[in-house]
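Weekly puzzle thread! Below is a chain. First person to post its structure in token form gets bragging rights.
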Amino acid sequence: MNLEKILNIKYPIIQGGMAHIATYKIASAVSNAGGLGVIGSGGMNAENLRENIRALRKITKNTFAVNLMMLRPDTDDLVKVILEEGVKVVTIGAGSYGKYADSFNEAGIKVLPVISSPVQIKKFEAYNPTAYIAEGLEAGGHIGQMTTMTLVPEAVAATKRPIIAAGGIASGREIFASEVLGASGVQIGTGFLFTKECPVHENYKNVLLKATSSKVTVVGNNFVPMRLLKNKMTRDYKALEKSNSLEELEYFTIGRLRKAVKDGDVIEGSVMTGLDVGRFSEIVSVKDFIEKIFKEYEEVKNAYKN
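Winning reply:
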């Protein structure tokens, strides 16, 4: 793996830019522990983002990133903050960043688009990204249609740029498997929900601690698929999905993630999580989590060498 050299980090691991969750608090902890901490701009306005960037810089000197969701109407404002604050790494989701590619390249920003299909690589290559995050459908939140195991090798074959595997990465074994498939590093989202520094409501953490993969579902299959923990919200969504339009379903979901993350409403809120949720059984520090999974990675790698 060589993501460490590309991003100037100790471990080839990126923290997912989870909306309403990935604030400076967890991003700084990940960066301080040797990974790439990511501030998720989802749920933030431009001033919130600026405050998070500055707060993070007060507690870490290590590399960090900002995640941008390109479908937002205020993306221009968020990009302006990123450029003004001198952010050096950006991860991109939910659309193309072509409008900002020249500005990012001129500023020396390393850009990592999230892809769910190798077809997307053809669109992004002209923008000269640093690497791609190939996220399989095992991930939490908005998902594509390919599994991590099928997506990663196809993405590797489609470009000479590094590929970062994401979706279902829960231990050192998956990190090693990702390397075998050709990945240069991994991105983890769900695993970081089980850390002390993750700023989600205790109800959110507690319901995840009791969950298994059988308690996870996907809604929006006919529109925009999302992987969530089963609850009243997902049951109501699926009932509405049979007869309602995309606009009506989008209105139904407004504020649901914040309701779960901030208010602790795990009944009516959106409890986003990946399929690997059942692999975690305790809340640990970010540092302990990262060190544990990379110890496992080294053990598995050495076992195969022997």
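Puzzle host: Confirmed. Bonus trivia for everyone else. The longest helix spans residues 286-305.
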